[in-house]
Design brief:
Arc Repressor Mutant, subunit A; Mycothiol system anti-sigma-R factor; mainly alpha; binds zinc ion; Anit_sigma_mycothiol_RsrA; 4 helices; Znf_put; 0% strand
Length: 91
């Protein structure tokens, strides 16, 4: 019996927490569960990394799925359309 990893959660625990981490990010966890998951993330760096990664992915997806495209992008598209129109009329 080794005590090297005495305070570290086992993989099984992390697998169990992963699902709850996803739900925490989706704001689908109950108040009590949130505290439990956050406490685990605080003490488990692999889960913290997963949490950060998932949050980043969510943020990117949310941004790219938002109804209005960023002004910058719309401006680029507008300019491109004008260029194409110019090309067409010059031919
Ligand atoms: Zn963990």
């Amino acid at each position: 019996m080794t005590h090297d990893h005495g305070t570290e959660p086992t993989n099984e625990e992390c697998v169990d927490f992963l699902e709850r981490i996803m739900r925490l990010i989706d704001n689908e966890l109950e108040e009590g569960d949130c505290a439990v998951v956050r406490a685990h993330i605080d003490t488990c760096s692999p889960c913290l990394e997963r949490y950060d990664l998932q949050r980043t992915v969510k943020a990117i997806v949310a941004r790219s799925c938002s109804e209005t495209a960023p002004v910058e992008l719309r401006e680029r598209v507008r300019v491109r359309i004008q260029q194409i129109q110019v090309e067409i009329t010059e031919e």
